[in-house]
Amino acid sequence: MNRYWLHAASGELSLARDNGKNIEKESEPQIILLNMEEFQQLEGNYPHRKNLISSMRFIRYSKVEAFHECVQGIIHVPKQGSKKEKEFSFGFYLFENKLFLIEEDEELQEILAKVKNDMFDGCTLHMVLLFICNALIDNDILYLQKIEENLEKVEDVVIKRIPEHFNEVIMRYRKQLSESRAYYEQLMNMGDFMQMYMNRESLVEEEQGWERYMNRVERLHNYVETIREYLQQIREMYQTQIDIHQNRIMSILTIVTTLFLPLTLITGWYGMNFPGMPEFQWKYGYLAVIGVSVLLIIIEIVYFKKKRIWISSKDVM
Amino acid sequence: MNRYWLHAASGELSLARDNGKNIEKESEPQIILLNMEEFQQLEGNYPHRKNLISSMRFIRYSKVEAFHECVQGIIHVPKQGSKKEKEFSFGFYLFENKLFLIEEDEELQEILAKVKNDMFDGCTLHMVLLFICNALIDNDILYLQKIEENLEKVEDVVIKRIPEHFNEVIMRYRKQLSESRAYYEQLMNMGDFMQMYMNRESLVEEEQGWERYMNRVERLHNYVETIREYLQQIREMYQTQIDIHQNRIMSILTIVTTLFLPLTLITGWYGMNFPGMPEFQWKYGYLAVIGVSVLLIIIEIVYFKKKRIWISSKDVM
Amino acid sequence: MNRYWLHAASGELSLARDNGKNIEKESEPQIILLNMEEFQQLEGNYPHRKNLISSMRFIRYSKVEAFHECVQGIIHVPKQGSKKEKEFSFGFYLFENKLFLIEEDEELQEILAKVKNDMFDGCTLHMVLLFICNALIDNDILYLQKIEENLEKVEDVVIKRIPEHFNEVIMRYRKQLSESRAYYEQLMNMGDFMQMYMNRESLVEEEQGWERYMNRVERLHNYVETIREYLQQIREMYQTQIDIHQNRIMSILTIVTTLFLPLTLITGWYGMNFPGMPEFQWKYGYLAVIGVSVLLIIIEIVYFKKKRIWISSKDVM
Amino acid sequence: MNRYWLHAASGELSLARDNGKNIEKESEPQIILLNMEEFQQLEGNYPHRKNLISSMRFIRYSKVEAFHECVQGIIHVPKQGSKKEKEFSFGFYLFENKLFLIEEDEELQEILAKVKNDMFDGCTLHMVLLFICNALIDNDILYLQKIEENLEKVEDVVIKRIPEHFNEVIMRYRKQLSESRAYYEQLMNMGDFMQMYMNRESLVEEEQGWERYMNRVERLHNYVETIREYLQQIREMYQTQIDIHQNRIMSILTIVTTLFLPLTLITGWYGMNFPGMPEFQWKYGYLAVIGVSVLLIIIEIVYFKKKRIWISSKDVM
Amino acid sequence: MNRYWLHAASGELSLARDNGKNIEKESEPQIILLNMEEFQQLEGNYPHRKNLISSMRFIRYSKVEAFHECVQGIIHVPKQGSKKEKEFSFGFYLFENKLFLIEEDEELQEILAKVKNDMFDGCTLHMVLLFICNALIDNDILYLQKIEENLEKVEDVVIKRIPEHFNEVIMRYRKQLSESRAYYEQLMNMGDFMQMYMNRESLVEEEQGWERYMNRVERLHNYVETIREYLQQIREMYQTQIDIHQNRIMSILTIVTTLFLPLTLITGWYGMNFPGMPEFQWKYGYLAVIGVSVLLIIIEIVYFKKKRIWISSKDVM
Ligand SMILES: [Mg+2]
Ligand SMILES: [Mg+2]
Ligand SMILES: [Mg+2]
Ligand SMILES: [Mg+2]
Ligand SMILES: [Mg+2]
Ligand SMILES: [Mg+2]
Ligand SMILES: [Mg+2]
Ligand SMILES: [Mg+2]
Ligand SMILES: [Mg+2]
Ligand SMILES: [Mg+2]
Ligand SMILES: [Mg+2]
Ligand SMILES: [Mg+2]
Ligand SMILES: [Mg+2]
Ligand SMILES: [Mg+2]
Ligand SMILES: [Mg+2]
Ligand SMILES: [Mg+2]
Ligand SMILES: [Mg+2]
Ligand SMILES: [Mg+2]
Ligand SMILES: [Mg+2]
Ligand SMILES: [Mg+2]
Ligand SMILES: [Mg+2]
Ligand SMILES: [Mg+2]
Ligand SMILES: [Mg+2]
Ligand SMILES: [Mg+2]
Ligand SMILES: [Mg+2]
Ligand SMILES: [Mg+2]
Ligand SMILES: [Mg+2]
Ligand SMILES: [Mg+2]
Ligand SMILES: [Mg+2]
Ligand SMILES: [Mg+2]
Ligand SMILES: [Mg+2]
């Protein structure tokens, strides 16, 4: 357990390693980093603590809940390719002049270090929570940018040929984007709630801060939606590519079949063993068959051209 | 019929088996569990009772209706794979200091036992109703989690091969998820209504409780939507798999046909019975036919490779 | 023309067949059933009567319009398979203490009889209009239930085979459901408007009544949407069934072609009339051809199995 | 330029052909019909006149803009098959007691004549503008009805066979409906704005009028959406028809190929020129080949029936 | 760095090239054009300047943020085919009586020149910002018009034949339109925010101006949506064209195969070398084979016509 003092005057955080023995007695604002077990065994009366603990047993989404005396919530950050190697989550519990941050993954230490730089004189605990939320999405734009660039490469491949394993690749992106979208939706709901709450408590500065947070998250959310739409367009292009490819293949099959079956019939015809077939008697019989065959081929080619059976590569757009 | 006393002071429920004879006379809050018939034959003046009875004749959705004197409604819980074996429904009728719970399926006894633990001093009947609603969705997240995991297995199958009976399986999930979605939509409407109602009656604590309930249900609803989207993505992947498979099959057909028809024509040609065909005279006639055939095959293979007729498994993404 | 008295004290309707001569003079609330012609020729000053008449010339949707002095509107009930044999419509015109019901189809008599049972002491004309609206949708849930059950039968057929005339059947349902949806949307708009109007006129009881009506219609509307989604799912399943069927057919074609074309080439080859083909000299030539043919077939079958050309019915999900 | 006087007392319009010389001096409400050039050269101080003129240079949509002193806007009526032969547009400029109507197409004269009938005592210029807007959509319902009927004919064709030029026809309707939808959306925005404006200016009667206008336009808009959905359903039916047709064709191809290729192999086999083939020695060789061929055909037909390769017309739904 | 004086009295901008030395001391409203570096090194206390600078490091969208003391934002104008050759962006920072415009691309000089014409007496800096925003979208309608016309040409091509490189062309338009849509959505959000802000600051004139701006942007946004829908319709038409083309090809293949395979079987049959085939003995054997072949062809053609295998070009809609 790490306990931080928030010096109201200077807006600075200082670490106080006393294993949380004197939490209760302090009157200064404090930020206490601890894990689930420590939070459960914390002495003192913390209203609705049980509710947060039971929520944290099985974390699937980010949320915030306000009770009469305290605000509590969970933030669940999905794994994001570029920066983070794994997903992580933490709970927060804001009660009187104490902000508890409950986590198992030891990711918050680093984030708190980042947040320290943003702090100013008269910074409240509500503000610190906002700064933490802001720090969590600080590099997300770069991560989304990266996904978009990767999809551009996929598009370039698809436009040239029909790639193997397209489905697996697309499915992976779809899941990733669905997850991001859900994440931002939950953060938007959270931000919305906090804005309302700050308004009710008449904390104007905090309200404006949460509003800006909301707008930032919404822009990320819209970016995700744009990428999702782009992914959808690539998928539809792939579908069309397959359809065109199929069309090409069938054209070849049809042309080949139509060219050869009649000729094969002719040769079959004169392969019959009927005695006294007049054509065999005729002097130019064999030449006539050659002529008819050539003629047939010419007629068919003209017909195919006219009917545009083959999607000509000259029909450029 | 089971009658429970709600001791306002201690927030405890105690069972009073007197077959409902003295319901009217009590001034303490009571919870009365009974079936349709008992509710119909209940003595005393219960306004709009007829309305609830006629609604319960044919239950299709959850709803709540407020009248001037009473609040009444129906909750219809769909069958959910994991925990419940069958769907069930019950009506509730909140009038003065009495909460009637009307059901045929005897599922509520168990739920009331669970609810008992949540009760506290000064707990009102409105609170009890909220606790019951909360108890009903307590394990739903696990159930949805289960569905999602099953769908992941389906995805793994589809990515490898085109399974039989895919349509039946997908259809079953779709129905299940449609049902869940409708269920949560109705609960959200209910929660919304109750929140409004509590606000109008100036029951602040109850209003906050219903708001938290609403948010819980909305998160479940959003989870259902996410799973539905996932299911849709699996379906689209399956479609694409079929299209690719078809493409492969047609490629084989086209290649085989294009390879063999010309050769067959050649053999047919020299199977003709025209007398005096010059090729037969020629010494190297047979060798020439062999040579032409081999040449033809080579040309065709080169052409197919160049035109990418076959979706090569080397075109990895 | 049928004129009804609404006795405010007892909440009863009594018929007064005097051909509408004394309408003007009465001070009691009245409900007057009449047809378009009678309404047009009605003596007395009825504001905006012309507007209603011109609206009724060409009825396509249900609507309600409020003027300063009167409320008027049209209800257009679409044909619904189970109960009603044909669509019908009527106009209403609520002015001072008179409710005019204008129709050509003589359907309202029956509905008014049903409505009589709901009436109570102090029942107003606004209430009667609400009761009529409620009576109109009383059995709709059963009708929608019927459609859903029929669609379940369609699904069962589609899951087993590709039925003829699927398109016609689906198109019929789609139209029916589109019509129902539009109908409920219009009723919701109407209910919404009436609720607002009652609120403005400070008729609390009526407002609550119209709110409940709105919610009832919305539930029906949502039910229609659920059925529409179900229909859509059946359609998509049908599409997939066709795709799978096509895939099967093409597999057969490809397998058959790939099996027989090479063999046919072999037989064609040895059907050529070249003199002195060495194979014919060889003693085991014929046996060798048989052997090669059998070998070819075995290789192809192994290849097809490995490449999963055929969607095996053992690949159960 | 045509100048009309609006006599407030009688609610009548009278024409005053004086070429707009005395516009400025009048104190009575006036409606002035003129073209762009005349409007530009109008003497007097008309605020934000430049804004309207520049908007009218390039008209693409209907809009209304309110400034501190004046209300101005543009209405762009798309070509609608039945009644109008071409699209037309006009601007309006409402300033003090003057309503300028600016157009090049001379369509408004006729509309003003229609509007005259609706005018009443104390009719304001705002009312006249509303009446003009109402007159513009008066026959639209009939026009949309016409489109719907035409689409029903298209549906009847598609259900029977796959028509040529379907794409062109559908594309034409789609464009038409997109245009209509955009038109009504813009009118709804306009109506909404005017309603707000009237509310702000405390013109209750006008506000109610614009509200009714809004509702009328919304119903038309919803009708367009219904037709668009119907069009979409026809398109999807057409798609399915093509898929089924393709399925049929492929079934024929597969059946024919599967029936004939084995037989052709047999005949090819016994067309080989191997000396001493034992079958030729056998007395019943030829009969056996006939027998085997017939047997093969029977087996194949049974197989096809069992596997439902052919979509039987007996599988009626 | 270019510094402009805004003379409040005359509403005129005059350039003051003093390299920003006296910015601080002025009491007149000023517009200062400068680049990122200059803005960073600006002396004086500019609250939240760091926030804008860090936002401008990586510009992806247009946004505006209000702090207690200042309004700041970024506008990112995408490349638009017709007029602009490249995308550009700039930041703005409105603090006290100074409007800083920060950009690297030197595009604003030109825009400011345009804006000068719109300025009037008593024009505020807020107004100037609005005028700049308006100037940025002044020609967008022509640009969108251009895209629509190009798509009409694409449609004309697609309706006649299946063009090559359709996918690439469509993808390019899709991206362009997605970008435009996102751009206008961001501008709408900005306009919305500014309107709210002006309302809070009680700047009525400015609020109305931003409202008109919002409506202009919304119309452009709706136009983009209409074009997107049109693009979608062209894509769907292309899909259908491919399906129809495939259908045609398969019809040809099926007809050719069905015509020739039976005849080929017959010729194969009589190419068998069985000794003593009775048909060869029969005098009219050869004639009979000719007759049967012709009959077969006739029967098949009749069958194809009846079953509408071929999509006849006489089946005009
Ligand atoms: Mg969004
Ligand atoms: Mg958006
Ligand atoms: Mg978007
Ligand atoms: Mg998607
Ligand atoms: Mg599509
Ligand atoms: Mg496809
Ligand atoms: Mg939701
Ligand atoms: Mg959502
Ligand atoms: Mg949702
Ligand atoms: Mg979601
Ligand atoms: Mg779905
Ligand atoms: Mg799709
Ligand atoms: Mg498909
Ligand atoms: Mg709903
Ligand atoms: Mg709905
Ligand atoms: Mg639904
Ligand atoms: Mg649909
Ligand atoms: Mg589909
Ligand atoms: Mg399909
Ligand atoms: Mg609609
Ligand atoms: Mg709509
Ligand atoms: Mg609507
Ligand atoms: Mg729809
Ligand atoms: Mg559409
Ligand atoms: Mg299709
Ligand atoms: Mg819009
Ligand atoms: Mg639109
Ligand atoms: Mg839109
Ligand atoms: Mg799109
Ligand atoms: Mg489609
Ligand atoms: Mg397709």
UniProtKB/TrEMBL annotation, chains A, B, C, D, E:
<dbReference type="Pfam" id="PF01544">
    <property type="entry name" value="CorA"/>
</dbReference>
<keyword id="KW-1003">Cell membrane</keyword>
<protein>
    <recommendedName>
        <fullName>Cobalt transporter</fullName>
    </recommendedName>
</protein>
<feature type="transmembrane region" description="Helical">
    <location>
        <begin position="249"/>
        <end position="272"/>
    </location>
</feature>
<feature type="transmembrane region" description="Helical">
    <location>
        <begin position="284"/>
        <end position="304"/>
    </location>
</feature>
<comment type="similarity">
    <text>Belongs to the CorA metal ion transporter (MIT) (TC 1.A.35) family.</text>
</comment>
<dbReference type="InterPro" id="IPR045863">
    <property type="entry name" value="CorA_TM1_TM2"/>
</dbReference>
<dbReference type="InterPro" id="IPR002523">
    <property type="entry name" value="MgTranspt_CorA/ZnTranspt_ZntB"/>
</dbReference>
<keyword id="KW-0472">Membrane</keyword>
<keyword id="KW-0813">Transport</keyword>
<dbReference type="InterPro" id="IPR045861">
    <property type="entry name" value="CorA_cytoplasmic_dom"/>
</dbReference>
<keyword id="KW-1133">Transmembrane helix</keyword>
<keyword id="KW-0812">Transmembrane</keyword>
